[in-house]
Design goal:
The chain is an alpha+beta fold and 420 residues long. The protein contains 22 helices and 11 strands. The protein has 4 domains: 126 residues, 2-Layer Sandwich (Beta Polymerase, domain 2); 87 residues, Hydrophobic Seed Protein; 136 residues, no CATH class; 46 residues, no CATH class. Strand 3 and strand 4 form a beta hairpin.
């Protein structure tokens, strides 16, 4: 209000704009407040002592006021979009023209807090009342200008439980393949916001039915026309902790499995999908598709391989169970196991595993190893690749109670070293 009032005192038009207006009309607390004005970037900087020109070419100035940073943007109209993401040039304009260049009517609203009135040039208030997501103007033009709007449509529709207006929906389908022009990192950023909160229950089916998963994941055969119609009762993705916020690696693990299976989980070969070689291949494909971080890649891989190892034909050993349960990804992996059980995948095995996990709650599943590589060197063994194997097998024996102290552990280690 302080920044807006100072602009008004300087003789300029200044309104709150975009998402903060939408959120207030929906009774939600905005995360931040953006201001739109007819003051040029230079004039904005002249009004305030502490500013930063982060996007002056697009008319955007950050104003630092006390502990806050306020984005102030000059009303503008955009020239043609050359890269499917950014306009080639902008022209400073009027509030009405500025509203027309925005993506959806619910985001094209202004609010004058001094006069307590909404300024609506695009019918956004009516669409909010009718729970509609509608592109401003010609939908094909809006998605051709900025392909990322395809994902923003999914996110807004799911977050606010909106129906996508038919012409807007038809345009999304027509432009779906344009997502391949958007950087993987930017797509991943949208997916983090979309696929981790409980409202992902609305986002995932839309991504599926509007044909956006193929250009997002960029691997594997796309769903056929027969199974394009989404069936929530058969979705592993939606079965994962539906009422909770989940981490992005878990969302990707469940989503990629769901995408690869296509059909009902009961008909999919999940033991193959979760086998160690396929899980590694799947993780590499997701990383290549979305350029996710090393940390997210590693967590996704550990979740898939951990679940897969427990569901193979051979019963897991006590050591395997303890290693799994002690890993930081165990809670997420268990969420995925419970979703698979709900879908009827290895239900008996997962029921047995749940009992074992309950027993492990009061057990130290990650005790300090009884011996180390230094102990093997002190015993006269030559350092080499066998150290890792020996220490791993000795630790397994420790986890299973087959060795109780350092002496017994060293005895097993020397036996293993002598046998190979």
């Amino acid at each position: 209000m302080d920044v807006l009032s100072q602009l008004r005192k300087g003789g300029f038009i200044a309104y709150f704009a975009g998402g903060c207006v939408r959120d207030q009309l929906l009774g939600l607390q905005p995360k931040d407040f953006d201001i739109a004005t007819n003051a040029t970037p230079k004039q904005v900087q002249e009004q305030f002592s502490n500013t930063q020109a982060v996007g002056a070419a697009f008319g955007v100035i950050l104003v630092r006021r006390r502990q806050s940073v306020i984005e102030v943007a000059t009303f503008r109209s955009d020239a043609s979009y050359q890269d499917g993401r950014h306009p080639s040039a902008v022209h400073f304009s009027t509030p009405q023209e500025d509203a027309q260049r925005r993506d959806f009517t619910i985001n094209g609203l202004f609010f004058d807090p001094l006069e307590d009135r909404v300024i609506d040039f695009v019918g956004g208030q009516a669409d909010l009342s009718n729970h509609l997501l509608r592109a401003i103007g010609e939908a094909d033009e809006r998605f051709a200008e900025d392909h990322l709007r395809l994902l923003r449509a999914m996110r807004f529709a799911s977050r606010f439980n909106l129906t996508i207006e038919p012409k807007t929906a038809e345009a999304i389908v027509r432009h779906a393949k344009s997502l391949i022009r958007i950087s993987p990192e930017r797509i991943a950023e949208e997916l983090r916001m979309m696929l981790t909160p409980p409202t992902r229950a609305g986002a995932w089916p839309r991504l599926w039915e509007f044909g956006l998963l193929e250009p997002i994941f960029r691997f594997g055969p796309p769903p056929t026309a027969q199974n394009r119609k989404f069936n929530p009762a058969r979705s592993i993705f939606l079965a994962v902790s539906p009422d909770d916020v989940i981490d992005f690696p878990l969302a990707l693990a469940a989503g990629s499995l769901c995408y690869q299976s296509h059909e009902s989980p009961a008909n999919a070969d999940f033991q193959m999908l979760l086998s160690d070689p396929f899980a590694r291949k799947l993780v590499r494909a997701v990383r290549q598709s979305l350029k996710i971080s090393n940390e997210e890649t590693d967590r996704m891989e550990v979740i898939l391989r951990g679940v897969g190892g427990l569901l193979q034909d051979a019963m897991p050993s006590v050591a395997q169970l303890k290693r799994f349960y002690a890993h930081p990804t165990a809670p997420d992996a268990i969420r995925l196991l419970l979703a698979l059980q709900q879908m009827g995948v290895r239900a008996d095995r997962i029921g047995w595993l749940r009992e074992r996990f309950s027993e492990l709650e009061s057990v130290d599943c990650a005790p300090i190893p009884l011996i180390s590589g230094e102990d093997l060197l002190a015993a006269g063994l030559s350092a080499g690749p066998q150290f890792k194997r020996i220490l791993y097998e000795v630790y397994d024996a420790q986890l299973e109670g087959r060795v109780q102290d350092k002496s017994e552990a060293m005895g097993l280690a020397l036996k293993l070293a002598g046998g190979h």
